[in-house]
Specification:
- With 454 residues, this protein is an alpha+beta fold.
- Among the domains are: 65 residues, Alpha-Beta Plaits (2-Layer Sandwich), CATH 3.30.70; 57 residues, Alpha-Beta Plaits.
- 25% of the residues lie in helices and 22% in strands.
- It has 14 helices and 22 strands.
- The strands form ten sheets. The protein has a four-stranded antiparallel beta sheet.
Length: 454
């Protein structure tokens, strides 16, 4: 169990008890040269061990998992468990002082207060514990001081200000959501995935402000706070509407992928040699038969050009002499020799073409089938299905659209020759190492990478 206490002026109170379990894979950590986890930690809990250049995580850690999320090699595994948050007791109503004026009933945001009478007692207010969020509005509205409230939270609100979370400073650690004693005051947005404060429920106890590691929580005018909150709620409502449309569109896109995949299988089986076929009318007819007529595919070219190629490698055993030259040049070590059955090629093959050009008896062949669009003289796009033979190493140039790239690190982690790395939140390529295998291009979830083959 780790108790995190205030160490700088930023922290006025200790956090709740938090149990942090973590493990660092040193074999992965030593690959990373930039160590972005050092810069992202808000409490400087991550440091370098001078003896082995590996990272350490000390007792300051409160489990925000930012180091784990930014690690490009998934070297950090971390699980956190916070103690149950302290909750303010529900307000206590003195039935003898209550005048049943209804002020507290009107001020309650959740409908937790109602008027009741029991036995010899006069009509008075009563609170439903299951609905009460401990915001304290009933206490502040009562004209007879019949409501006792505030054993933990403050009893007054100065200046009529409100507490807001500044989105640009928030690091998304979610500590504020776990420590807030007023249930419903802090929620996580569906759009920006960051916490936001509902001014109507916030009791301004400052607990969230005191524990925020990035000082993102501050006082603001109530007008500005409500404007910010209402804007977020508007975006949430719009997002819900869009999600319904996106779900429908996603189903249509899956249908398009299925059409292209089935078509590729059918055409690949009809030919043995290299070819190029105009299939524009076939593709458009099949797509128009499955998509909603209200959906307009203005960018059908993107669907076609980013459809992953189908690649095959053939080993002609009758030609192979077992010389082993292909083994020595394979960049991913997926070829091995076992006499008398000669060479074996594993699934890890990235179809780079090095073995094809090296083989002295032409015992290895690689074919690549793919869709592509071309613009004719009339400036209209035509769709082709093409097969080409890869006769040797690809000669290409790695290109990336930084406006699309989210620096997720998938390409860098999966590059078979370690030609890609992350530096200053950008993907960097070592063109001397790159073999233009196009693995990164097919893996990129945002189609931000293009291998421009010469």
């Amino acid at each position: 169990m780790i108790i995190i206490e205030a160490s700088t002026k930023k922290y006025n109170k200790p956090l709740r008890e938090v149990e942090v379990e973590y493990e660092i894979d040193e074999t992965k950590c030593e690959i990373c040269k930039d160590k972005p986890c050092l810069n992202v930690c808000p409490v400087n809990a991550v440091s370098i061990n001078s003896e082995n250049d590996m990272i350490n995580i000390n007792e300051k850690c409160f489990g925000c998992v930012l180091c784990r999320e930014i690690c490009p090699y998934d070297a950090i595994s971390m699980e956190t468990k916070l103690a149950v948050p302290i909750r303010e007791n529900i307000p206590n109503i003195n039935s003898k002082l209550c005048k049943a004026c209804g002020a507290c009933v009107l001020s309650c945001k959740t409908g937790a207060i109602h008027l009741t009478a029991s036995g010899s007692e006069q009509v008075h207010s009563e609170i439903d514990e299951n609905k009460c969020v401990r915001c304290g509005y009933c206490f502040r509205s009562c004209p007879t001081d019949a409501i006792k409230y505030g054993e933990i939270l403050p009893k007054t609100v100065s200046g009529g200000r409100a507490i807001v979370i500044r989105e640009k400073d928030c690091i998304g650690c979610m500590t504020c959501t776990k420590i807030c004693p007023s249930r419903g005051a802090i929620n996580v947005g569906k759009v920006n995935k960051l916490p936001n404060i509902n001014p109507s429920y916030c009791a301004r106890c400052e607990e969230c402000m005191n524990v925020c590691p990035s000082a993102a929580i501050r006082y603001s005018s109530r007008k500005r706070a409500f404007e910010q909150f209402n804007k977020l709620k508007f975006l949430e409502n719009v997002s819900t509407i869009i999600d319904n449309d996106i779900k429908k569109l996603s189903n249509e896109i899956v249908d398009i992928d299925t059409i292209l995949l089935d078509l590729a299988k059918d055409l690949s089986g009809e030919y043995d040699e290299a070819f190029e076929i105009d299939i524009t009318e076939i593709v458009l007819d099949k797509i128009n038969s499955v998509i909603d007529p209200n959906i307009f595919l203005d960018y059908i070219k993107d669907f076609i050009d980013y459809f992953p190629p189908i690649r095959k490698i053939k080993f002609l055993e009758e030609k192979c002499i077992g010389c082993g030259e292909c083994m020595e040049i394979c960049p991913v070590n997926c070829i091995w020799l076992e006499l008398p059955s000669l060479i074996h090629i594993e699934e890890e093959c990235v179809f780079c073409g090095n073995c094809v050009s090296t083989c002295p008896v032409e015992a290895i062949e690689i074919q690549e089938d793919f869709f592509e669009t071309k613009t004719n003289d009339l400036e209209s796009d035509k769709i082709f299905f093409t097969r080409r033979n890869i006769d040797g190493p690809r000669d290409g140039k790695f290109e990336i659209q930084n406006s699309k790239c989210q620096v997720c690190g998938i390409c860098a982690n999966q590059c078979p020759v370690n030609a890609l790395s992350i530096k200053n939140d950008e993907i960097i390529v070592n063109q001397d190492l790159c073999i233009s295998c196009r693995e990164c291009e097919s893996l990129c979830p945002l189609n931000a990478i293009n291998i421009n083959l010469k």
